[in-house]
Amino acid sequence: MKPPVLSATGRALLDRRTFLQQFGHGAAGIALATLLSRDRALGASAVRPVIDPGRPLAPRVPHFPAKAKRLLMIQCSGGVSHLDSFDWKPELLRMDGKPMPGAKENFITFQGENGNLVRPLYEFKPRGRSGKMLSDLFPRIAEMADDLCFIHSMTAKSNTHGPADCQMNTGFIFDGYPSVGAWASYALGSEADDLPAFVAIPDTRGVPVGGPNDWGNGFLPAVFQGTAFNASQPIYNLAPPRGSSSGTDRAVGDALRFLNDRHLEQYPGDQNLAARISSYELAARMQLSVPEVSDLAKETAATRARYGVDDPDPIKSGFARNCLLARRLLERGVRCIQLYHGAQQMCDLGAVNWDGHRALKAQYDIHGAVFDQPAAALVGDLRERGLLDDTLVVWATEFGRMPTFQKGASGRDHNPDGFTVWMTGAGVKRGFSFGATDDLGYKAVQNITTIYDLHATILHLLGLDHERLTYYHNGIERRLTDVHGHVIKETLS
Amino acid sequence: MTNRPPLVSAPASGGLQTCAARPPFVSWAAKKLAAGLVGTALTSALAATAPNFVSDVRPIFAKHCVECHGPEKQKSGYRLDVKAIALTGGEGSAPNIVPGQGATSPLVKYIKREVEDMKMPPKGDPLSPAEIATIAAWIDAGAVWPDSASAAVADPLDWWSLKPIASVTPPASAANPIDAFIRAKLATNGLTPSPSADARTLIRRLYFDLTGLPPTPEEIAGFVADQAPDAYARLVEKLLASPRYGERWARHWLDVVHYGDTHGYDKDKLRPNAWPYRDYVVRAFNSDKPYARFVQEQIAGDVLFPDSADGIEALGFISAGPWDFIGHAEVPESKTDGKIARHLDRDDMVANTIGTFSSLTVHCAQCHNHKFDPIPAEDYYNLQAVFAALDRTDREYYRDDARHARFQALRRVQRETAAALAALEAPLRAQAGEAYAEITRRLELPPQTDPAEPGKPSPSRGYHSALSSTPDVTKWVQVDLGESIEINRATLVPAHDTFNGIGAGFGFPVRFKVEASDDPEFQTGVKLLWQRYDQTFMADFPNPGRDAFTTGGGTGDGIIGRYVRVTVTKLAPRKDDYMFALAELRVTDRAGKNVAAGRPVSALDTIESGERWRKSNLTDGIAPAALSAEEKAELERARDALLLGSADEPTKSRRAALLAESSRIAAELKSLPKPDLVYAGGIHTGSGTFKGTGAAGGHPRPIHLLARGQVTTPGKLVGPGTLSALQFAPARFDLPADAGEGQRRAALAHWLTDPKNPLTWRSIVNRVWQYHFGRGLVDTPNDFGRNGGQPSHPELLDWLAADFRDSGGSFKSLHRRIVMSATYRQAVTANPAAEKIDSGNTLLWRQNRRKLEAEALRDAVLAVSGKLDLTMGGPGWQDFVIERPEHSPHFKYELANPEDPKTWRRSIYRFVVRSQTQPWMTSMDCADPSMRVDKRNESLSPLQALAMLNNGFIVSQAQHLAARVRAERPDDLPAQIARAHALALGRAPEPAALAQLVAFAEAEGLPALGRLILNLNEFTFVD
Fold first, then answer.
1. Do B922 and A222 touch (CB under 8 A)?
2. How far is CA B778 from CA B409, B723, B773, in A?
3. Which range marks the domain in which residue A159 is found?
C-alpha cells in the first residue's frame, strides 16, 4: 500500500516556511489559541513553546542544548521494595527478627501493625568494577551496575498507591495534571512524523495503579496526551472498523481529503481547517507505521531471544514484547515513552504488581523473573545501538517498602520516606550512587530527594528549565514541578 | 516515628496548595533607591546614636535579603525594600519587625538562624554578628525608616476588575449597543465589520450556540425561505424556548463548577445522587432563573429558600468537585492527614465559589497573601469559615415543592420540640439526681452477666482483635466445633464497652462474612453462611446495638463443617483506630443446640487483655444481657417517675404535650414516602471516621489562619467573611454569636449578588460572551486578577454587566442582546488586511469559526443519524462497565456496546467519571471533571482523527445514518446521499460533488458514505 501523501493544499499550507510567513501575517486561528495569543501573561522568565497549530507535534528547540533527545521511563507499579533490590542494608541482616529500634509497641504503618525487622530476602553481591552491592532479584540489571546512576534517597508525598503513582507520573497527587510525557511533548514536539510523540506502554495485564491519568494531558491540549498501546493491544481506534475493507478505508481517506480541500479553498489560509486535514494525514501515516513498528517478527532470532519474546510464560513474553516495542519506537524518534510493569490490583495484593504486603518473596520471585531479562535487554540493546547517547532512561516506582514485615504476614508495608530509583543514558553519571537511607533503609537521611527533584533533573537533561516550562491555567503558571524541585546536579555527567 | 496513616503526608515545605512563582508586576528602579539616598537626614536624637537605616541597615538588606524579598522575588510575600511590607508583613510571624524589640523581633531570630526552617538567608553566607547587631540595634531604636527610602509599590486595588461597574452610554453610531461599542473600536483601529453570514450559516450557528444541536434540513429551508424582517428574531425566540437550550448551557456551567458523578481521588467511588444538581442547572437555564437567585440558591438555597426543592438541589454546587474518600472515610478528623483532607475539601469549595462567581484565584492565598492580587490569606480563611460546618453528603428532600415544604416544616417543629423538651427536662433531671442517672445507665448499659450466676456482673467482655490504623483490613476469628457437623445458623452477639462512649455494639464488624469449612486454614471446601462484605460505600452493616445478629437458617442441603469463621473486611471505629470485637459466637446445630459453647477459638490476631478481652471469651456464654421489652418499659416508668417527682402539674402536662407532639411528628414523618436524595453541601451526620459536624449540632469547625497552609501550625482563629479588596460592603460578616452556620452562607450569597459587587456581573456576562464568540471580552474567564487578561472592550463589558444586572439577571435577555447584534451575525470571512491589524480577531471584525466541543459533536452525530433520544433528566447513562466495584471501581469503556440505545441520549446526561475519563470525549478536548474549566481547549490531533474514523460509536451511527436515509428516500441513491449531506451539513451537495459522492457510495456503500460525511471539516466546525 502506498503511503498517503499530503494533499496539495495541506502541503502548501503546512510547509514550514509558508506557515511561518502566513503566521507572521497573523492568520492565527482558534486552535491552540490559548497557546498562541497569551504572550501577555508570559512572564519574563517563562518560556512557553511556540506551537504551530498545523503541526502541534513538530520538533521544537529546547531552552538550552539538551543531553537527551528522548526519554524512556520504566515504572514498576505497586511499590518495589528497595531493601530487597537496590538498597543494600547489612544492618538489616544483623537486626533480622529484632523489633524496630525506637518503635512504639505497636508499630503501625499504612496497612496496620508491623512485626519485626526482616533481612533482605534476596542475596546481595558486589557487581561490576564498582563493586556496587545489588541483589539477585534483578540479576541481569545488577550486571549493569557500572552503567547505572542510583538515587537511594527518594521520598514521595503519599503512601497510597494512586496518589503516589500520580505524583511520580504528573508531579501532583491529584487527578487532572499533565504527565511527564505530556510536558515533554508540549515542550519539544516529536522527531517522528508518523508516530505519536508520546507513547504509554501499559502492562499486558492492565493499566498501572494510577490509571490512564499517568499519561494524561491534564489541562494541556489533548494533542499532548500519551497514546496508549502495547505489543498486545493496538492503539485505540487505529484499526479500521470491522467489516470495512482496506480499500474502503483508503477510499474514505481519499474522498475526505478531496472534499476537505474543496472546502478549504473557500477559506484560503485558514489554519484550523488545514490543521485538521493534516491531523488526518498523520493518522493515516500512523495506521501504516504503527503496525510496522509493532511487528516484532522483523527482529532477529537473537534479539527476540535476548528480550525473552518467545518465553513460554505469557506474562514474561508480553513484557518482553513491550520492551522490544519501546526500543523500536525510540529508534523511530518517539519523544517520550512511559513503559509500565505491573497493573492495578484486581485480586490478591501483590499478585499482578509489586505491592508485596503478604507474601513478598513468593511474589517477587515471579515478578523479578518477568521483569529482569526484558528490561535488562532493553537497556543493553539501546546502549549497543548507540541510542543511550541521546536517550535518558529512568527506572522508577511510586514508593519503597518497610524494613519490617507486617504483623501476621510475610510482606512489607508501604514506605514513602525512602526508596530507590535509577537513571542511565544521556547526560547521567555511570556507576554512581546518590543519597542514602538510614542503616535500616527506613528513611532517606542523606541528600533527601523529592519526586520534584527527579522531574527537574529529567527536564534538565531534555534541555528544559523546569521553572521556565510553564502553562497558564486558572491564574497560575503551572509547572511539572509545582513550586519545588532542584536539578540533582551531582548525578549529571 | 510509628504511626503513619494513609493518604498524603504533610508536605515538607511550602504548604498544601501550590502556585508557580510568577515574575513581579512591580518594577522597582535602582535609580529610585539612589534618589532616596539623597537628602535623608537624621531625624531624632535617638537616631543619632542608633544605626541609620539608609547608611547602615539598608546595605545589609540589599546584600543578604533583597534578592528574595525585594522587587524580583517576594518569598512569603515579604519585602525588605518596601517600608510598609517590611514593618507589617511576615505571614505567620507578622510583623517580622517589632520596633523597640530588637532581640525578639522574628526577623532577628531568623537571621540569627535560631528558628528551624527559617534560617535566613537559606542559601549563601549568613549575616555576620556585626550585621546582626546593627539590625537589632536599629530595631531597638524604633526601626526608623524614612518614607523616602522605601520602594514604591503599585496600589493593589488599582485594578480594573475591582473597580465599580461604570455607568456607560453606548456610542450613538449604531442602534444596537453592542454593535456601537464594537464598531467604535474597529473604526479607531482602521477596521470595518464583516458582512452578515448567509441564512444557512446563521441558522446552523444559532442552533449550535443556543441548543448544541444542528438544525434539520426542513428547519433550514423554512428559515432561508422566510423573508419576513423578524424571521431571525423569531428563530432566536424559538430556540431560547426549547428545552434543548437549558441542556446546552447547563453543560457550560458544569464545566466551570467541575461537576462529576464520582468522587475522584484514589478510590473513585460513584456518586449516585449527584445528578439532581445537574438537572437543577438544566431547569434553571430553561426557566430563565434570575442570576442572583441562581447564585443564592447554589450557596445558601437551604437557608434562603428552604421550602423549595431547588434550594436543596442547587447545593450540589458546593459538592460538585472531587472528594477524598480515604481522607474522610478512613482517617478521622483528629489526625493530621484527616485535617489536611478536610482543609483541602473546604479549599475546593472556596476556590469553586470565588472562581465561578467572582473570577478570582482566591485559592492562591492559602499559603501566603496572594502574590499578585490584593487577597490577604486571612480573606481566604474567612471564606473557609463560611463553609466550615459543611461536608459533601447526601441530603434528604422532596422533588415536589409542596411535600418538601411540609417535610421542612415537620423537621423544623421536630427540632423545636426536642429543644423545648430538653430545656424542660434539664432542671428536673438535675433534681432527680443519682438515682435517675443510675436508671439511665441501666437502660443504656446492661451488665455482662454470667448465666451460671445470674445477676452477678462478670468482667468478661468477649473477643477483641488487634488495633489497626485503617478500617479496610481483613481480620478473622474462628471456632473449632470439634467435629464436622451440619450447621443450622450462627449468631454474632455484640460486645459492650464504654470505651470512647461507644457502648452497645462495641467493635461490631462493619463488613463481614461467616463461613464454615473442614479446613482450619479455610483454603478448601469453604461454604458461605452469610456475607455483607462487598466494599461499596453504601453497603455497611448498621451497628446492631445490643441486638444479636443471626445468619439465615440452614436448609435441607445444610452446611457442614468443623470450623466456623467470621472474616471481617471492614473494621469498626474505636477512637483513632479500628478493630473488631464480639461478645459471643454461637453456632447452632439442627437440634438448636449451641455447639460452639466452650469450644476453642483462634484468630488472626487478638489483644488478649486479661479477663476482659480474650479469645476464649468468645465462647464462654457471657454476653451483655439484653433487656426484655417489659424490663425496659418498667425501667422507663421508674425513670419518668423520678423525673417528674418534683414537677408541678403545668410542667407535667407541658411535657406530656411535647411528647405527644413529638410522636405525632414522628408518625407523620414516617408516613411520608422515602425522601429523595441529592449529593450536596450540607451538615453531615455520620458514624465511624466520617462523622461530620451533625452530631455536634452542625456548628462550624473552628478555622485558623494557617501559615504556609500547614494544618499542623494553626494560627489565629478567624470568622466568616469574604474578599476585602471589594469595598462596597464590609468583608467580615458581622453575625450574632448564636447565628447558625447557614447565616454565614446566606451572608456570602448576599455579598456575591449585591448589585454593587463588580465581579459577579462582569464575570457572568463575560462567560456568556465567550460561549457565543469563542473568546471572552476578558480571555481568562476564571481569572480577573493581575495574572489574567484585561478586557478588550472595557466599556462594553461594563455596559453588558450593568444591563444584565439591572434587567433582572435574565440569561435569555443577555443571549438576545448578543445574538441579535450585527457583530454576532458577521460571517467568518477571510480578510488579509484585517488580519494584519488584528490577527487574533480580538476586536471582532468577523465572527470566529469554532470547533464543536466533544458533547456537541457527539450529540450532532446522534441527531444526524436519527438516533438521538431526547429524554431529559434522571440518573446519568453509562457507557462503561464497572469492574471491581468493591475496592476501587474500574471503568471499562471498551466493554460498552455502541448499539445500546441507553447511550444515545444527550451528552449532558452522561455519567461523568473523574479517574478514568471517557476516551473518545477526552480525545476531543472534553473538560476534565477534576479541574474547573472556563474554556475548552481546541486542539487537533491524529488520535481525534482516528476516533472519528474508526471508533465504534461513529461506525455504528454511520450505519444508522445510512439506514435512515434509505428509509426516508427509498430506491434513490442520489437522493439518499443528498439527504445525508443535508442532515449533517445543512446544505445539498453541489452537482459535481454529488456525482462523486454517488460514485463513492456505489463502490463503498452508504455506511462508508456516512462515515465520510461525519468526518468532514464542515461537520466539525461551526462557521
1. yes
2. 45, 21, 12
3. 56-241+300-491
User: Is residue A392's pLDDT more than 90?
Assistant: yes
**Does A199 map to a domain?**
yes
pLDDT tens for B929-957 read: 988 999 998 888 888 999 999 999 999 99
Instruction: Mark yes or no for CB contact A108/B3 under 8 Å.
Output: yes
Indicate the average pLDDT of chain A. Answer: 87
A103 vs B contacts (CB less than 8 Å) = 1-2
The Cα B983–Cα B975 span in angstroms is: 12
Instruction: Write down the pTM of the prediction.
Output: 0.77
CA distance A288 to A1: 9
Interface of B with A in 316-335 (CB under 8 A): 322, 326
Give the whole-angstrom CA distance, residue A296 versus residue A299.
Answer: 6
**The total number of structural domains that make up chain A:** 1
Residue A328 is part of a domain; what is its CATH number? 3.40.720.10
> Residue B814: its pLDDT value, please?
98
Q: Are A72 and A199 in contact (CB under 8 A)?
A: no
Looking from the CA of A4 toward its CB, the CA atoms found within 13 Å total 31
| Nearest chain A residue (CA) to B948 | A237
Q: What is the pLDDT of residue B761?
A: 98
Average pLDDT over residues B118-143: 88
Place of cell 475519563: B917
Q: Which residues of B touch A26 (CB under 8 A)?
A: 835-836, 838-840
Write the pLDDT tens digit of every residue in B190-231. 999 999 999 999 999 999 999 999 999 999 999 999 999 999
CB contacts under 8 A, B 442-461 vs A, are none
Q: Tell me the sheet residues that pair with B140.
A: none
Closest by Cα among A221, A475, A218 to B931: A218
> Is B849's pLDDT higher than 90?
yes
Q: Give yes or no for a contact between A187 and A143, defined as CB atoms under 8 angstroms apart.
A: no
Residues A110, B4: C-beta atoms closer than 8 Å: yes
Identify whether A96 is part of a domain.
Answer: yes
Nearest to A283 among B848, B945, B952 (CB): B945
Facing A476 at nearest CB: one of B361, B605, B951: B361
Query: Quick check: A372 and A380 in contact, CB under 8 A?
Result: no
Three-state DSSP at B205 gives helix
| Complex ipTM more than 0.85, yes or no | no
**What is the DSSP code string of A24-55?**
HHT---STTHHHHS-GGG--SS--PPPPPTT-
Q: Answer whether A173 touches B (CB < 8 Å).
A: yes
Q: Which of A108, A161, A407 has its CB closest to that of B2?
A: A108
Contact B264 A213 (CB under 8 A): no
Residue B230 has which C-alpha cell?
A: 423578524
Cα–Cα distance for residue pair A133/A123, rounded to 1 Å:
10
pLDDT digits (tens, 9 = 90+) for A417-434: 999 999 999 999 999 999
DSSP states of A222-253: GGGSPEE--SSSPPTTTSPPTT--HHHHHHHH
Phi, psi angle pair for B159, to nearest 5°: -145, 140
The string of pLDDT tens digits covering residues A89-125 is: 999 999 999 998 877 656 777 777 888 999 999 999 9
Question: pLDDT of B789-814, one tens digit each?
Answer: 899 999 999 999 999 999 999 999 99
Statement: residue B8 has pLDDT above 80: no
**CA separation (Å) from B555 to B552, B559, B589?**
9, 8, 12
For residue A39, being part of any structural domain is answered with no
If contacts are CB pairs under 8 Å, which of residues 195-254 in chain A contact chain B?
196, 211-213, 216, 218-225, 227, 235-241, 244, 247-248, 251-252
Is residue A427 a part of any domain in this protein?
Answer: yes
Across the interface, of B22, B830, B950, the residue whose CB is closest to A477 is B22
Q: Report the residue of chain A nearest B849, measured CA to CA.
A: A30
